[in-house]
Write a structure and sequence with these properties.
Elements (H helix, E strand, L loop, with lengths): L15 E4 L5 H11 L6 H10 L2 E7 L2 E11 L2 E9 L8 H15 L4 E6 L4 H9 L3 E12 L2 E11 L3
Parallel strand pairs: 4-5
Antiparallel strand pairs: 1-2, 2-3, 3-4, 5-7, 6-7
Length: 161
């Protein structure tokens, strides 16, 4: 299965997962700028699309409610961005998106998945731990932060058949 093929999971009002397109970037950027004090640029998303990374959106009606970016190479996946639109938290969208991205990583034959998360983001850390990720290290001064830099917690998940 080609991981760029749209996966439709729309079940009577439940958001559908589909491949991100370049014409989604305006909506994605609105969410990114609201969700993060140091958002990705439009160019980063566009570069990921052109590089062939797996970029996905959760869409309900015409609204994008969240998105994820996954890079897979050499049997390893890296979750680069996972975001639920502000105001949509607490509906299980982040967990559904993460599970969908893990399925996509498996389809692309990844054996493990890595990610970085801010220590100041306990909701994300809790989600990743509930889904089986474990802390394997730290990257000092990885993220920009108000008044300096913030470390990243590096987490990993082994994908077993």
């Amino acid at each position: 299965m080609n991981a760029r093929v749209a996966v439709v999971e729309d079940l009577d009002g439940v958001p559908a997962l589909r491949a991100m397109r370049e014409d989604d970037l305006d909506a994605v950027m609105r969410i990114e700028k609201k969700a993060y004090p140091f958002p990705w640029s439009r160019g980063i998303f566009r570069d990921c699309l052109h590089a062939g990374y797996s970029l996905w959106v959760f869409e309900q009606d015409v609204d994008i409610l969240g998105y994820g970016v996954l890079s897979v190479a050499a049997e390893e996946a890296h979750l680069l961005n996972l975001c639920t639109a502000p105001g949509c938290e607490g509906r299980g969208l982040g967990q559904r998106m993460l599970h969908s991205l893990l399925r996509i990583a498996r389809v692309q034959r990844a054996q493990r998945v890595f990610l970085e998360v801010r220590p100041s983001n306990p909701r994300a850390i809790d989600l990743y731990q509930r889904c089986g990720f474990n802390e394997i290290g730290r990257r000092p001064r990885y993220y920009p932060a108000n008044g300096g830099r913030e470390d990243a917690i590096v987490m990993a998940l082994e994908l077993l058949d």
